[in-house]
Design a protein that fits this description.
mainly alpha, rod-shaped
Length: 90
């Protein structure tokens, strides 16, 4: 389950991190990163922390996933409602 959540959110986190890079001008080019100043380190730490938080927030969606393959197949075949009253997988 954790691997599934990680694989699902990795592409999204990459896109979001590129969008967040606009808020950290010191990280926009390799020359400023090579200077390794405290400002660059601070901005990189902030960006990295935000990306980690976004990755961890994907764990909130775990209860929405079916528990096993068997349950998933049964729900697909029946088109049944979920336990919380949501629609089936179809």
């Amino acid at each position: 389950m954790i691997t599934t959540a990680t694989n699902a959110v990795s592409p999204l986190s990459a896109v979001i991190s590129y969008q967040l890079l606009a808020f950290f001008p010191s990280l926009n080019d390799q020359a400023s990163i090579k200077t390794d100043t405290p400002t660059v380190r601070k901005e990189f730490a902030c960006l990295h922390t935000l990306v980690i938080i976004l990755n961890l927030s994907s764990l909130i969606s775990l209860p929405l996933l079916p528990r096993q393959k068997k349950e998933t197949r049964e729900r697909e075949e029946e088109g049944s409602m979920g336990k919380k009253g949501g629609r089936g997988l179809l």
